[in-house]
Design goal:
Blueprint lengths: L5 H4 L15 E3 L2 E3 L3 E7 L5 H13 L4 E5 L7 H11 L2 E5 L3 H7 L5 E5 L8 H6 L5 E4 L6 H13 L5 E5 L7 H8 L3 E4 L5 H14 L3 E5 L4 H14 L3 E2 L16 E3 L5 E3 L1
Parallel strand pairs: 3-4, 3-10, 3-11, 4-5, 5-6, 6-7, 7-8, 8-9, 9-10
Antiparallel strand pairs: 1-2, 12-13
Helix pairs in contact: 2-3, 8-9
């Protein structure tokens, strides 16, 4: 059964894309599903310095959150914490087992998990008591009903703060999926090449998704400007602040993160 929303209870108008408005989920200070469109920058980095560089690019692009995958395994929690402190962005850590949840809790702003990982395990209980919002991933080709049941299971274990993450293989279905789940929904474009990912991100904003996950690269800043326009056209705004970095000296000098997590001028 879908989670009832405050908007539905008050007979408020439907949200962007025709789907009923859903209660927002706050992750690391960023409200997902609050009339904004959230860019979740996903880092492919597995080493400390590239991870910090990914954080810088995500911040430049007005990313709301930085997804670091299984970075707690390598390069480890210390590098993830340095990344969080240096960029000011909360991190989304991927988890597969209850032990992963315990390890991520001190540094993560959100936990990402594939719905299939919840089957026949104690992971729902760990997610339910972690005190962190969950980004629940539906893998391509997997059952929508199993995905929505997994979200309900996490809520039954004590955590209603679940954001649905759809692979975007049928964007026309996004409004109905949001309505069925009664939760914010983001589209995962992080597996696509940049040009295809950019097109998918624009389309996701246009059909009423609450955000997009996209792989970090040097072209993210241009994409955020495009998403601004698309989000505005459907009555939304991009979440996060625009922070510009300009090559040069003085106050406008370009900043980069060093391995300690501090920002230095270049």
């Amino acid at each position: 059964m879908a989670r009832p929303t405050n908007a539905a209870a008050r007979d408020e108008p439907a949200g962007p894309g025709g789907a009923p408005a859903s209660d927002p989920v706050v992750a690391g200070g960023v409200a997902i599903g609050s009339g904004t469109f959230t860019l979740i920058a996903r880092s492919p980095a597995v080493d400390a310095e590239p991870l910090l560089e990914a954080a810088r690019l995500a911040r430049e692009a007005r990313g709301g959150l930085l997804a670091v995958g299984h970075a707690l395994q390598a390069p480890g929690a210390e590098a993830v914490e340095a990344c969080r402190r240096g960029s000011g962005l909360a991190v989304v850590c991927s988890v597969l087992e209850p032990g992963d949840v315990a390890a991520a809790a001190p540094v993560a702003g959100m936990l990402r998990v594939p719905a299939a990982a919840l089957e026949g395990s104690l992971l729902p209980r760990a997610l339910g008591t972690a005190g962190l919002p969950v980004l629940l991933e539906r893998e391509p080709g997997s059952s929508v009903q199993a995905w929505l049941r997994a979200a309900e299971r996490i809520q039954q274990e004590g955590n209603p703060e679940v954001v649905l993450c759809d692979p975007g293989d049928d964007l026309a279905a996004v409004p109905s999926l949001r309505a069925a789940g009664g939760r914010p929904l983001v589209v995962d474009a992080s597996q696509a090449a940049h040009r295809e990912a950019a097109a998918l991100a624009r389309a996701a904003a246009a059909v009423g998704a609450d955000g997009v996950t996209i792989r970090v690269d040097g072209e993210l800043d241009g994409l955020s400007s495009e998403l601004d326009a698309v989000a505005a056209a459907v009555g939304r705004r991009m979440a996060g602040r625009r922070i510009r970095y300009v090559d040069g000296r003085g106050a406008g000098a370009r900043q980069v993160a060093d391995p300690s997590g501090r920002w230095r001028r270049q």
